[in-house]
Amino acid sequence: MAANTDKINYAKALGFHSVAAAVIFTVLYVPLLGWFVRQSFFRPTYVHFVLVVFCTIRIAAFAIRAVLAGSSTAGETLGLVIADEILFGVGYFGLLYSAYTLVLDLELLCGGPPPRSPILVLVKNRRIFRLAMLVAVVLGVYSASHNNGQGSTSSALHKVSIIIFLVLTVLQAFQTVMLARTEYAGDSQYLQGQKSLGRKHGVMILLAISALLLVREAFSAATMSNSTKQDNEHLWYPLLAVPEILAVILYATPGLVPKRDELPSPQ
């Protein structure tokens, strides 16, 4: 009897309660995965490949979350809870870098002038951006996997990871706004006269994606010192899960992602 009462349901302690919500998101990501798998064959691009990985990770993460929310025995398995937290943290890498890549690719196609500011040169450096995201991912994974026994250290690393992702998300949104200014100034020959929905309204779609990513990261940053609020499903689903899936749906807009052979230089 004493052994049973000593067991902790980590999933319930973290606020995993809604089985239905987790199942719904699992199901919703399945057709999106199918769409990006298809696009990866017919329009093979980095963005489509990354979104296949992202959707796969989200299906796995929400399926695990559904099990954790619905099963008391599964919720007592700390390793499964940690795996779910890591999957949700790692996946954002692909979502953000897809937006970043699309903006830079459209800038190339629009034929805009090269950046003069040293800061903009750094921001537009894909290797540096990838490296910064990789650092954020590593810190996030380490903090999630070492959360017990090293509370203060893991908490600090968790906050640093969130701050890095927030800064990168803001920088990506800034670049999208700059691209929008170029388009609306009439300097873009590429975007004029396009017929497909993705090409015709590509910049507006990217602005919407950037706004959704900012909502997601603003929520993470605002609650990074309060794990109870951050894991509260009444806040977590509408402010993190919903913006993510809406962004993925926008990525699926036909014609949004240019073919690799359309780009003026190899990336």
Automatic annotation (TrEMBL):
The chain crosses the membrane at residues 14-37, 49-68, 88-108, 128-145, 157-180, 201-223, 235-257. Keywords: Membrane, Transmembrane, Transmembrane helix. This is THH1/TOM1/TOM3 domain-containing protein.
